[in-house]
Specification:
Layout: H1 2-8, E1 10-13, E2 18-21, E3 31-39, E4 42-49, E5 52-57, E6 63-65, E7 75-77
Parallel strand pairs: 2-6
Antiparallel strand pairs: 1-2, 3-4, 4-5, 6-7
Length: about 80
Amino acid sequence: VPVVRHFFGIRPEAHMQRITLRPQMPQAWPSAQLADVPVGNNRLSLDFGQGRYLVRQAANWPILLQLPEQAGKTVKVN
C-alpha cells in the first residue's frame, strides 16, 4: 500500500466518488503500471511513463491529476 500511495499517488475519496492522483515516480523508472485497484465500488488502472498518464476506471468518477512537474496545477481527467 505505501508504494501505491507514494509512487502512484492514489488518494481515494470513495465516500465522494472522487479520486486524486499525485504520482511521484522515480526518474529511474521508465514506466509503471497498476491494474484493477479497488476504490469503493470502482476499479482503477494506471499506466505512467515518459510523460504519459493513462487512467482507466470501471465507474465514471471525477479524477484529479496533480503532476509534480506542474506544481500547483490540477487537471481533471475524463
